[in-house]
Amino acid sequence: MKRSIRTKFSAVMWLAILIFLAVVLTFPRWISIFYPEPHRNLVFSAAYEYDVDPYLVFAIIRAESKYQNGAESPAGARGLMQIMPETARWIAEQQGISDFDPDSLHDPETNIRFGCWYLADLNREFDGHTPVVVAAYNAGRGKLKEWMTEGEWDGSSDSIEKIPFRETRLYVKSVLKNYEAYQAIYK
To answer: Which candidate in 42, 55, 61, 94 could, as Cys together with 182 as Cys, close a disulfide (CB 3.0–4.6 Å)?
Structure first.
């Protein structure tokens, strides 16, 4: 009886060890199912062109559209990186694009390029401080400056709970969590 219990226990232990090793050894591969790199070449190309971290771009795409090209928010933001048509018109103007069509925001190449350009612009303005850049991407730079000027949020990762808008607070947390995951998996 004791020998049978020991044999079963030993078999269960070996099985547990094998499962553990399989999970540990394949960790980056299986977890990437939840954190894919859609349009990888487009993201890396635009991210390098505009000097932004491609993994931050993937983190934003995951939070904004869940990788859906045709995503459109109730407010009218469009595409993978959920860019508002007004913001896109301004970006097009800054880039010297005169024939911009807001419907092109559903095109991954246009959306990713515009999103990366916009992130680079926010990085320049906010000295590359990621939580601030992410908050500005969501709420707008004007709102962000207002919060910081009025002392409502100091821009630190430690005080994200003080972001006045619940949507932006949750968004910043989500993007930073996604960003951390992407870096852990792919870097």
So the answer is: 55
